[in-house]
Amino acid sequence: MKAIETERLFLREWQKNDVEDLFDIMKNPSVTIGGWKPHSNINTSIEVLNEYIESDERWAVELKDTGKVIGSIRVYPDNNRGKFFAKTINYVLSEDYWGNGYMTEAVKRIIEYLFEELNIDLLSAFHYPNNDKSKKVLEKCGFEYEITIEQGSTRYDGQVFDAVCYSILKSDYFQNKLL
Prior knowledge:
The chain has 6 helices and 8 strands; from the N terminus they run ββαααβββαβαββα. It has 179 residues and is α+β, with helices and mostly antiparallel strands. It has one domain: Gcn5-related N-acetyltransferase (GNAT) (Aminopeptidase, 3-Layer(aba) Sandwich), CATH 3.40.630.30. The protein has an 8-stranded mixed beta sheet with strand order 1-2-3-4-5-6-8-7, with helices on both faces. Strand 4 and strand 5 (86-93) form a beta hairpin. The model has no long low-confidence stretch (mean pLDDT 91).
């Protein structure tokens, strides 16, 4: 996984010493309402962090000025797109940093990397219908609404939700970049 820099952030591999920051993010039910089970103790965060490190699909979102990890971005194959070389993105951000444009800044840079360096054809993202913050990030980053899949997502506790799908094509990314 390539380390990526933005104006205010470092997007980098997760490291063992990020465990306290991960626990701070993931223990908050307001943050994990997007589908993740809140971490009840640091041991859960240690297990999850080890998975993050092994999978090489996730960036830690680190503030440049403090070195604190405030979020995570995962990019993985979207195998539902037939002929397209497609990826899916999801993300989580500490509630303490909501409303400051950090995730929009990070996602825009990841999009640039995926289309310009990895040469993907399409990037998709999903959110629950009530997650307006995630919807706003996607729209600010150039994603377009595609479809709502009824009862398309099951949360860790077995509760079923609709899955709202957004996507952005490589051609649209480059067209918008020229504007």
